[in-house]
Amino acid sequence: MQEDTLVNNAKKALSEAQERLNARCEQIKSQVSEVKEQVRSTAKGIVEEAKEKGRAALYRVSEFLGIKKKLLDIRENVRGVDEVKQEVAHKQVAKVR
Fold first, then answer.
1. What pLDDT, in 10s, does the model give residues 61-76?
2. Cα gap 84→91, rounded to integer Å
3. Is the pTM of this model over 0.90?
4. In terms of Cα–Cα distance, which of 38, 57, 34, 56 is closest to 46?
5. Exposed (0-12), middle (13-18) or buried (19+): which is 68, by Cβ within 10 Å?
6. What mean pLDDT value characterizes the chain?
7. What pLDDT is stored for residue 29 in this prediction?
8. Residues in contact with 84: Cβ distance below 8 Å, sequence separation at least 6, in sequence order
9. In this structure, what DSSP letter does residue 73 have?
10. Which residues contact 68 (CB under 8 A, 6 or more apart)?
11. How far is CA 95 from the centre of its chain?
12. What is the Cα 49 distance to its own chain's centre?
């Protein structure tokens, strides 16, 4: 009978310890999740800032070197090519019908 009491007390103590550990584990998971979100948010901000600074720097360099107008002309030519491709595609579809 005394052995049963000792076994029951040991089981109870282990069960309580398990519950405390599980609760602590959940708390740590929650904290890790919060830190992860903070890191993600901070990294996103850093990347956005770097992109913006990079764009601004590229803009200043392109103006300084005098290639801004050439780049804009290339962009317009590419847009023109895309428009022509779309027109051709529409005409081909219209011929099929």
1. 878 888 878 888 888 8
2. 11
3. no
4. 38
5. middle
6. 85
7. 93
8. none
9. H
10. 59, 62
11. 45
12. 15
